[in-house]
Design brief:
Keywords: Kinase, Transferase. InterPro entries: Cytidylate_Kinase-2 (IPR052922), P-loop_NTPase (IPR027417). This is DNA topology modulation kinase FlaR-like protein. GO terms for molecular function: kinase activity. The chain is of the alpha/beta class. It has a single domain (3-183), classed as P-loop containing nucleotide triphosphate hydrolases (Rossmann fold). The chain is built from nine helices and eight strands. The protein has helices spanning 8-17, 31-42, 49-54, 64-75, 90-93, 107-121, 140-147, 149-164, 176-186, and strands at 3-5, 20-25, 46-48, 55-56, 60-61, 80-83, 99-103, 169-173. The strands form two sheets. It has a six-stranded parallel beta sheet. Strands 4-5 form a two-stranded antiparallel sheet. The protein is globular and about 40 Å long. The N and C termini lie far apart (35 Å). 36% of the residues are buried.
């Protein structure tokens, strides 16, 4: 079982002391927005897995070998905040991470987030996406991924955290109120 922290004040304290942080969770839950805010507050270099590792312009998927090489280079650094779940790369990331924030929102809120994102960014590239990857309407496969995330993918996340970093502290955020409370405890951006 991952090393969950249940107290928000304690989580904020550990987060402030951490130099290598992963923000994980289902698409649409707000992990990229939270990542940018925490990155600014803690003055940590921010890496979006979608932007930096997964995608090339025009929604072309980067090769797994290249993806893993790029991730390996970043996680070798002393200070970073990485946004993205991707349990297939936990073997590279989790042994180096000092703190994991799991944005674990209800699926209806993730679906709402995806719809809102498509509305506001449709036909343009989001800040956390690779250049040339224009936002489009979510397809059935993507919506199914979100709808079934807790049942199909959360167990993979838990197993990966347990296998590659059973002592790494993990803090779960399950509502927007909890997100805002954590950010309030971290204070204003530097």
């Amino acid at each position: 079982m991952p090393a969950y922290i249940d107290d928000t004040r304690k989580a904020a304290g550990v987060l402030r002391q951490s130099a290598r942080i992963m923000i994980i969770g289902c698409s649409g839950g707000g992990k990229s927005t939270l990542s940018r805010k925490i990155s600014r507050r803690l003055d940590l270099p921010y890496f979006s897995m979608d932007k930096e590792f997964f995608w090339l312009p025009g929604w072309v998927k980067r090769s797994k070998d290249e993806e893993r090489r790029l991730i390996t280079d970043v996680v070798a650094g002393e200070r970073w905040l990485m946004d993205g779940t991707g349990p297939s790369t936990f073997d590279l990331r989790v042994p180096r991470v000092e703190f994991v924030v799991w944005v674990r929102m209800p699926r209806w809120l993730c679906l709402w987030g995806i719809c809102k994102r498509a509305f506001f960014h449709f036909g343009r590239t989001r800040p956390d996406m690779a250049p040339g990857c224009l936002e489009r309407l979510p397809d059935r496969e993507f919506l199914t991924y979100i709808w079934t995330f807790e049942k199909r993918f959360a167990p993979l996340v838990i197993a990966g955290l347990d296998k590659h970093g059973p002592d790494v502290p993990v803090f779960q955020l399950k509502s927007r109120r909890e997100v805002n409370h954590l950010l309030d405890l971290l204070g204003a951006p530097t």
